[in-house]
Specification:
It is a single chain. The model is unreliable at 677-685 (pLDDT under 50). The chain has 3 domains: 81-208, no CATH class; 271-451, Arp2/3 complex 21 kDa subunit ARPC3 (Orthogonal Bundle), CATH 1.10.1760; 459-669, Orthogonal Bundle (Hypothetical protein af1432). A two-stranded antiparallel sheet has the order 1-6. 67% of the residues lie in helices and 2% in strands. By secondary structure, the protein is an all-alpha fold. The protein has helices at residues 3-37, 63-75, 86-107, 112-122, 129-137, 140-157, 167-182, 188-201, 210-223, 244-253, 261-287, 294-315, 327-336, 338-347, 349-355, 360-378, 385-407, 412-443, 449-455, 461-469, 471-491, 495-504, 532-552, 557-565, 573-581, 601-617, 624-640, 651-669, 679-684, and strands spanning 54-55, 60-61, 81-83, 206-208, 228-229, 234-236. The radius of gyration is 49 Å and the shape is elongated. Keywords: Membrane, Transmembrane, Transmembrane helix. Residues 469-624 form the HD/PDEase domain. It comes from Caloramator proteoclasticus DSM 10124. This is HD/PDEase domain-containing protein.
Length: 685
């Protein structure tokens, strides 16, 4: 199998593994979510006896009760009317016309029947022939008195609200008219005529306004709060006879066995949310510049999502506020760093939404736990401080949840209990994180920031051995660590890994410390007593010796890789040239380190920092130009020797590394300014 085929096979294999992990994660999350969102089903009919108390699995509207509430409110709505002020005016004008016409017809030389017909044709008020005959018999003073009386009375009567099609309003107006007539000083004949004309003149002055009435009804409909059946509220009590309303509520809640349509919608929603979570995770893996392989990153993250889902499903039985919301942000931050940890935790919000039945308050609490958990965990430098991080998250979440509950007018005791559960969940989350972290570190060989910080502690056994048995190498390693950290930070590599890797890169020198220049206190050099070939063997063996120590003390694989790669296949030039000068028949490869070459930014930076620091340290009272020249020379030699050919460093990165090295080394090695001796001047003074 050629090299290209091997690469293709590896890519296919890794892609297949990712697909398998994707499918397994989806199935597990789906099963957990299914038991959360799909409620227990009941096979019941009208007339059956409820075997148990049947409770609502979620909040939903009782549409029948809501409609009854609306109908009741609408039944109390009074119709809206518009008042026509011209009705009274028109009625008085009609009465005036009657009186004027009667006066006119009295003067006409025609028979009585014709006069009656003429009056009936000219006036708008309907009067009987007998009433008109009586009017024609009145003299002018009586007609004027009747006219004035009706004008005064109708102004009062028609000022009342008389609604159309409302007999009560008409009757009330007629009663008022009758009262005024009876209270008047008119004679009986005029009173009878006043009653006939007045009754005929009373007309509705209030007319139904359909638009305003409908607008009022719509406003009332909008104001009516729906009748909501709350989660865990009883729909039917044990022993109660099932009626049609019960069945409607159970159907609406989706808990009737014959009603599966709602289940399909819920399953579809769950599927979309879980797929969205995993797809977002895929994009995160593609864009994450992490020290772990994409497959490892993907597997670890999927396992974290599954563990979080299981814990959420289990703990919500006690209370939804007791779910270990800070577990994922704390653990993912410890493993991947704060940025990636926060993104993973926020992506998981979609799963939490499902598992908490879309409880908005819990979702707010979870998001706050993600932000706070990531923030406080990013500051953690010791494993024991993880619990302190959980404590801080718990205190702040306690206050936030308490405030939310108070603003929502939650019962005081319930608000307090919810807040206490939130506080406890943060503590429990941090305890779980402390317990689970070593398992992930061991199984996946994860080098977490907290593990790196622990390894950087000077009290670590290997670092103490290096300090006491090879003090020069220890000092050199610290300086290399400073250089590597500054350079890594400048180009966006893992600066903490670069620093810690530099601390351990030369631990192999512990075995034979005095064969290395930095540990030689006297002028005696052991290499003067052995052949160049043996010297090279001793020098290069510190790589193997370092690897053995790293494995013995169980240093992470990434640190072991740095130990193996920090010299690459560099030529041990001093002894190679010495062997040539002695006329030996030599092979160049025998004077090179075995490798491999650096394959990460951090190991490449440490290679350069190691060589540059040693070279600059060998200079005698170096100037600024000396340091710059030496840095350029060493890095160019590594480039020309192809030692960086397998590392992801770009030329732009290398230029930045040069600048950082020069800046740091100038602060360490360049010759101080010699201040003039002022003693003589003082004496002369």
């Amino acid at each position: 199998m050629n090299y290209k085929s091997k690469i293709i096979e590896d890519l296919i294999s890794e892609k297949l593994k990712k697909i398998i992990v994707f499918i397994i994660t989806f199935i597990v999350l789906f099963i957990i979510s299914f038991f959360t969102v799909i409620p227990k089903k009941y096979s019941l009919q009208i007339g059956d006896i409820a075997p148990i108390d049947i409770k609502a699995p979620r909040d939903f509207e009782d549409e029948e009760a809501t409609q009854e509430k609306i109908d009741k409110a609408l039944s109390e709505v009074l119709p809206k009317y518009n008042k026509d002020l011209n009705i009274a005016k028109k009625s008085i004008e009609d009465i005036n016309k009657i009186i004027e016409n009667v006066k006119y017809q009295k003067e006409q030389n025609v028979n009585e029947t014709t006069k009656i017909e003429n009056i009936k044709n000219l006036v708008m008020i309907s009067l009987s022939d007998e009433d008109i005959k009586s009017l024609l018999k009145l003299n002018e003073q009586e007609l004027d008195a009747l006219d004035k009386f009706l004008n005064d009375v109708l102004i009062k009567v028609l000022s009342l609200d008389i609604r159309e099609n409302n007999l009560d309003d008409i009757k009330k107006a007629q009663q008022d008219l009758d009262f005024y007539i009876k209270s008047s000083t008119l004679n009986k004949n005029l009173k009878d005529l006043a009653n006939s004309i007045g009754v005929a003149s009373i007309k509705p002055n209030m007319f139904y306004d359909y638009e305003k009435t409908e607008e009022l009804k719509q406003q009332i409909r909008r104001q009516i709060e729906p009748v909501v059946i709350k989660k865990n509220q009883n729909i039917v009590l044990k022993g109660e006879v099932i009626n049609e309303h019960h069945l409607n509520l159970m159907s609406k809640a989706g808990i009737l066995s014959q009603n599966r349509k709602n289940d399909f919608i819920l399953i579809l929603g769950v599927t979309i949310l879980i797929l969205s979570t995993l797809i977002l995770l895929v994009f995160l893996v593609k864009n994450e510049g992490n020290v772990y392989s994409n497959l490892s990153f993907y597997v670890i993250t999927c396992i974290l999502l599954i563990i979080t889902a299981i814990l959420t499903f289990a703990f919500k039985i006690i209370s939804v506020y007791f779910i270990p919301a800070s577990f994922l942000p704390i653990l993912s931050t410890l493993i991947f760093g704060s940025k990636t940890g926060l993104i993973i935790s926020l992506i998981n919000t979609l799963i939490v939404i499902i598992l908490t039945n879309f409880n908005i308050n819990v979702c707010i609490m979870y998001v706050m736990s993600c932000i706070l958990g990531t923030f406080f965990t990013s500051k953690v430098q010791e494993r024991n401080n993880i619990l302190l991080s959980g404590l801080y998250v718990g205190i702040i979440n306690f206050l936030i949840v308490y405030a939310i509950n108070i603003l929502n007018n939650t019962i005081y005791t319930q608000a307090v209990y919810s807040s206490i559960f939130v506080f406890l969940n943060s503590i429990v989350s941090s305890i779980f994180a402390i317990g689970v972290l070593p398992i992930f570190e061991q199984v996946f060989n994860i080098l977490t920031p907290i593990k790196l910080l622990e390894l950087s502690n000077p009290n670590q056994i290997l670092l103490k051995k290096l300090l006491f048995e090879a003090p020069g190498t220890y000092h050199h390693s610290i300086l290399v660590g400073n250089l590597a950290e500054a350079a890594a930070n400048e180009i966006g590599a893992n600066s903490l890994l670069a620093r810690v890797g530099a601390y351990y890169h030369d631990i192999g020198k512990i075995k034979r410390p005095y064969f290395f220049k930095e540990n030689q206190i006297t002028n005696d050099n052991p290499h003067d007593k052995v052949t160049p070939k043996l010297s090279v063997s001793i020098i290069t063996s510190h790589i193997r010796d370092g690897l053995e120590l790293a494995q013995k003390y169980k240093l992470p694989n990434i640190i072991q890789d740095i130990i193996m790669q920090h010299h690459g296949t560099t030529l041990v030039k001093y002894f190679y040239v010495q062997a040539l000068n002695e006329g030996e028949n030599i092979i160049e490869d025998n004077f090179r380190y075995e490798g491999p070459k650096p394959n990460s930014k951090e190991s490449a930076i440490i290679m350069l920092a190691d060589s540059v620091e040693a070279a600059v340290r060998s200079l005698n009272s170096p100037t600024v130009d000396d340091i710059k020249t030496m840095v350029e020379k060493i890095i160019n030699e590594k480039l020309f020797d192809n030692q960086l050919s397998e590392s992801p460093l770009t030329f732009k990165d290398i230029e930045k590394i040069k600048e950082v090295f020069i800046k740091v080394l100038l602060g360490i090695f360049h010759t101080r300014i010699e201040y003039p001796d002022t003693t003589k001047e003082d004496k002369n003074d």
